[in-house]
Amino acid sequence: MAKRYILEFILKGSDKVSKPTASATKAVGDFNKQVTLAIKSLNGVTKPVSSAAKWMDNFGKHVDKAKVSTEKFNKEQSELASE
Length: 83
Fold this sequence. Notes:
Elements: H1 2-82
């Protein structure tokens, strides 16, 4: 009879321990979900920023090409004028 009470006490006690443990596990899982969402949000911000940086880089390349073309044109014009 005493063994039964001891066993019930142990089982009830372990149940009381497992509920907070399960709750803590759920809290950690929820926290990890929030971290994942935050990382996704940051990626959502960095992708447009890197896209804009790439666009600016391409724009700068076009400006450089236009500058070279203008210099080439001016040089040709000055050569023609000196002939």
